[in-house]
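Sanity check

After download, print the first record. It should look like this:
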Amino acid sequence: MKNYLPLQLLLVFIICSAFSCSQSPSYDLAIENVSIFDSKNKSVSHHKTVLISGDSIAAILTNTDPFKAKRSIDGGERLLIPGLIDTHTHLIGNYGADADSPETYLADDGIKMLRELSSHHYLAHGVTTIIDMGQPETWMEHTLAWQKNPAPEYPNVFICGGSMVTDEDRWQPAHHIEVKNPEDGRRKVREYAKMGLKYMKLYRKLQKPDYEAMVDEAGKQGILINTHVDNNVVTIQEAMDYGVRNFEHFFTVTPSVLSYDTDWPLMNEKYNIRMTSSIDQFTAQMVFFFGYIKDHPEFDTKLNVLFESMAAKGANLSTALNVLASSAGKSDFFTSFEYYPIRKTPDLGYSDAQQKDLEDTYEAMMYYIKKAHNAGVKLRIGTDCRFGGRALLSEMMLLYKAGIPMEDVLQIATLNGYESMRLEGERGSIEIGKKADLVLFDKNPFDDYKNILSDKTIIKDGQVFHLKKSIGHELKETLAFQGVEKGLEWFEEKKTDDTYGPVIKSEMKNTVKELMGGGKADEAIAAYELYSKLFPDTKMQIDGIAITNMIYALIREGNETKANKLYHFADESFPDAQKFMGLHLFMTLMEKGIVAAEKEFEEHRSDTAYTIDENELNGVGYLLIQKEKLQEAIAIFKINASAFPESWNVYDSLGEAYLKADNKPLAIKNYRESIRLNPENTNGIEVLQKLGVK
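Expected structure tokens:
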């Protein structure tokens, strides 16, 4: 009998253990022994374990609680935060595809390649969700598919469609969508709602009647309006009165407290700067405005009142901070609103005194950012630049350096963005039931703010994110900033490196295109030759507009030798690309003279391979005037008049060229013809009056 009891007890123990194990859930992933950042309360809980089932957080335990998981990560008491969110990106424009149609990317998985760029640019840095704030409508079929079909290997994407502007008689970028009147604006809102969009962006050039109608219709359709207002058309206060709460870019607060028409010239005078079309100088001017406001008590008071009003109404504001900091030389990572031409420092041309003023006014801007935050304005990060993931990390550090506590910075980079975009139901905080989009820092940002840049373990949809580096895209950066010889040496070294993925045809194509569009002629040619060597059976096509724009950029920079080299390379390598008559005639003029250019025009004016554009030809004429080649300019304007004999503007330009050449009779003749075609040509009338002609 003594031998049976221990055996019975053993059987009971085995049965109970088996029963107990069968009742214990088995999780897919455990992140053990972590410090969890609570983005709602801005606190940190230590010695925790997060358990994940599928794509969601299933349980949060203390380290002593038992569990069973298929896979575990030892957190080592490192900091775990929700996935970061960039609330203002331009996916297509930032990838150099803005002017291209999707059809040019269909071959060789080009559309997939563009989506994978979002993983390299964002997810690899811990940004698990991005909001696209404006793209050409031709791309929406593809990007909306990304939104509707999320995957662990890509960041979550939500799109706004195009940026809405009021119809104007002027050229608009591809991502600007014109509405003709208030009812047309309402129709566009209903169209987007039917497509499944959650957001729309109303841009700075949208007039009040259209703006108000679209906000009203968006409320009916359940669409969240995000707005960029900085053109003294609709102010932030007026937009809030209409019901808008989401505002884009911190720098857009300035025109809501002053008048650009009046104060911009005064601000330029104060800092001895001037109006310019340079994107970097424009960005710097947005910084200068904050110093101007701080020096004017009435504007300072208005801005503080605006912050209080925004806070009271629950308004939020995206940052675009790293771009402005880059212009002032205050960021560790250079970005710009426009990636092209490719560069790593701002193109400002300021004196030492102007640069010192810019640095001082940057401090004023950061002073106001902290004041807005302290007043209760909900800040969210929106980088509005290429390489947004890395820029977002820089913005976090800049906010901290401005005096905003680290716990607030982490909340701004996570929960604030998700709440502002109405996504907090699934993301933005570490809670049971929410999506398992998480970032585990190797080093704690609370110990040192620079640890924001430390290595990270990234979990997307419950899966640990792994991404091999892109040899094609890194080749582009190496060629652009280290030159052809170093770039090709780098490629030979890295093409067998296991940390890089395989050489992909679509990536190499994009490398050539971006170097071409970024003003890197020799580097683009080298990349094309490498592509041809790697894929000898495939003929690459390049958009003719991109080629033409790059060559014009080189000409404007005074680098005509490089422009000429690229022109002939493109003509030989891409014979099917769209050709533009203006550029062709400019190159002919420079190489062979006026007579040869006139002959080329007559021979090809009916050739469908060439696009004859009035504005381009006029632009070439003025480019030649700037280069003090008056006779060549006159020849181009005469060709333009021949091509567009009913255009009053062409004759006005021709008259101007003749006047500069001191040929008053022909100047008068052409100004008269311009006025005959357009009796309201005030410029022509004024010139003739000055010449004593009625």
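If your output differs, re-run the checksum step. Summary of this record's structure: The radius of gyration is 30 Å.
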